[in-house]
Task: inverse folding
């Protein structure tokens, strides 16, 4: 070193890039001068690196510093899991020399082998804990899970990879990953949508991406769904790569039926977008449906006959996800920045059999219409077409029939299917699927005749009331259809007369057409009033007037006849 030095003063020697710095060099100097000091797990890596840097080999002295550190490593460190972890933690900051001497690789392999041996030795205890209560299972957790969290992320990745090769249980590795993420990422605070600027440094982003890549490459599946959602939120907040986010979304899609509503409410990091990250939920739902499709195709029988989809486990999962998505839609619907196309795409993504009833979907759409009053009539119609009126319950149908936010076509469809439901309940709701029983029930209601052809007097009051109600419902249904048709015709007439009035105003003749338009409006209001009780009274009054006029006409004709033949 003195010969290679460019300093003209030989008494002054500058050492550059000394591994371990002044601490390691001081220990090496004490060893050279015979001062007593102890080699420990904290300083053995420093001593090995500085000895390599100073070339303290057997060529200059027997049992030099390199040999001493190697003996300590082989005799004490690699045989003990705890000491191997301590030495590996102490290697931080000694790059690249610690890699060149192979200290890191030997410590990683030692940790993996010792962890595997401990699990093999304590296998019986773990089996007893698994068969017992959850409290005992917590006591049987591997102690090294928490100690691995102190490692640097690249060292930790190498340790987990070595553990997978050595046969460590996947459950233990999954628990270790969860604990490492909670420890390394606890400093990341949740930011709001309106916050701007960088949130965290590259270190947190590297940690998130490394853990996600580790779960993917090593095929680690022993992690909970809540942890996956947590990792997805962290990946969004630290702005991780899209590939890493998609990997987590695929894993979540495999078990989406086990998720909760709070898991899906992921805040959006884009200031100009909606409050919630709808695109991420959309991709998760797509992955779930792809998994269901693969399961259904795999469950088909070799003879070509498919299994009963309504009773299959995949259909049960789809129903759970359908209820979950209805709740999610209701939560994001009040967002004023949520685009209609995104909202509709999320609704249309689920198949029809995912919802037994559409009450949840109707509630979500009603909330969206209330929060977005600026929607055009065509947009409202397009959105409401996604509701299957036949799947609405009686309460939801009653609410929809009185909902002013719904288009008129939607209200008419609800009323129509409600009438059909009542009709079917009276016609076949009390019978079974057999045709004979249905016919006998129909005869009991509509043809209560005795053997002599005279109406039987032993018909029950319930059957008679059911027949009257059924006839009344049919009559009301016909009247409702007729009134709707009349309203449509009258609306067309009003539009035509309004156009004629505008044309007359342009031609300089506003008076005649204006009076005609006002008269048509008054006639329209009078016809619309037929829906109310006053309309019924008018009908009765008109019938009475017509009958009186008819009787008067008959009396006049009689008088004329008597006069002629007198």
Result:
């Amino acid at each position: 070193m003195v010969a290679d030095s460019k300093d003209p003063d030989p008494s002054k020697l500058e050492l550059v890039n000394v591994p371990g710095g002044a601490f390691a060099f001081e220990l090496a100097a004490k060893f050279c001068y015979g001062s007593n000091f102890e080699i420990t797990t904290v300083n053995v890596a420093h001593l090995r690196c500085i000895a390599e840097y100073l070339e303290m080999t057997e060529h200059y002295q027997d049992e030099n510093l390199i040999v001493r550190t190697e003996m300590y490593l082989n005799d004490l460190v690699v045989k003990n899991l705890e000491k191997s972890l301590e030495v590996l933690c102490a290697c931080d900051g000694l790059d690249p020399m610690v890699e060149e001497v192979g200290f890191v690789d030997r410590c990683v392999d030692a940790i993996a082998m010792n962890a595997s041996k401990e699990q093999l030795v304590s296998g019986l205890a773990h089996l007893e804990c698994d068969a017992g209560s959850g409290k005992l299972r917590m006591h049987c957790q591997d102690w090294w899970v928490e100690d691995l969290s102190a490692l640097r992320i690249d060292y930790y990745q190498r340790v987990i990879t070595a553990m997978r090769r050595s046969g460590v249980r996947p459950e233990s590795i999954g628990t270790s990953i969860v604990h490492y993420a909670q420890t390394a990422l606890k400093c990341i605070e949740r930011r709001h949508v309106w916050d701007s600027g960088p949130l965290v440094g590259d270190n947190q982003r590297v940690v998130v991406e490394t853990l996600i890549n580790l779960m993917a490459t090593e095929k680690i599946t022993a992690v909970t769904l809540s942890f996956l959602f947590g990792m997805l939120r962290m990946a969004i907040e630290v702005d991780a790569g899209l590939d890493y986010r998609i990997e987590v979304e695929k894993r979540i899609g495999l078990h989406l039926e086990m998720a909760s509503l709070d898991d899906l409410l992921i805040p959006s990091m884009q200031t100009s977008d909606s409050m919630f990250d709808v695109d991420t939920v959309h991709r998760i739902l797509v992955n779930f449906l792809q998994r269901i499709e693969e399961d259904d195709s795999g469950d088909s029988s070799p003879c070509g006959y498919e299994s009963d989809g309504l009773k299959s486990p995949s259909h049960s999962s789809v129903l759970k996800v359908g209820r979950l998505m209805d709740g999610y839609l209701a939560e994001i619907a009040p967002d004023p920045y949520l685009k209609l196309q995104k909202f509709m795409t999320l609704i249309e993504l689920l198949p029809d059999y995912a919802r037994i009833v559409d009450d949840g979907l109707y509630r979500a759409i009603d909330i969206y219409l209330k929060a977005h009053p600026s929607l055009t009539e065509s947009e409202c119609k397009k959105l409401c077409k996604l509701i299957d009126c036949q799947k609405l319950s009686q309460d939801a149908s009653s609410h929809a029939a009185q909902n002013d936010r719904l288009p008129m076509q939607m209200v008419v469809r609800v009323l129509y299917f409600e009438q059909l439901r009542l009709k079917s309940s009276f016609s076949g709701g009390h019978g079974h699927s057999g045709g004979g029983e249905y016919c006998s029930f129909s005869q009991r209601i509509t043809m209560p005749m005795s053997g002599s052809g005279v109406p039987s007097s032993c018909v029950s009051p319930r059957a008679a009331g059911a027949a009257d109600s059924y006839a009344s419902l049919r009559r009301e249904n016909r009247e409702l259809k007729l009134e709707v048709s009349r309203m449509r015709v009258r609306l067309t007439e009003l539009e035509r007369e309004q156009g004629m009035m505008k044309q007359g105003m342009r031609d300089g003749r506003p008076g005649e057409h204006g009076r005609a338009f006002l008269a048509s409006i008054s006639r329209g209001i009078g016809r619309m009033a037929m829906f109310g009780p006053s309309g019924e009274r008018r009908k009765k009054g008109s019938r009475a007037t017509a009958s009186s006029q008819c009787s008067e006409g008959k009396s006049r004709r009689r008088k004329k006849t008597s006069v002629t033949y007198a």
In short: The first helix runs from residue 21 to 32.
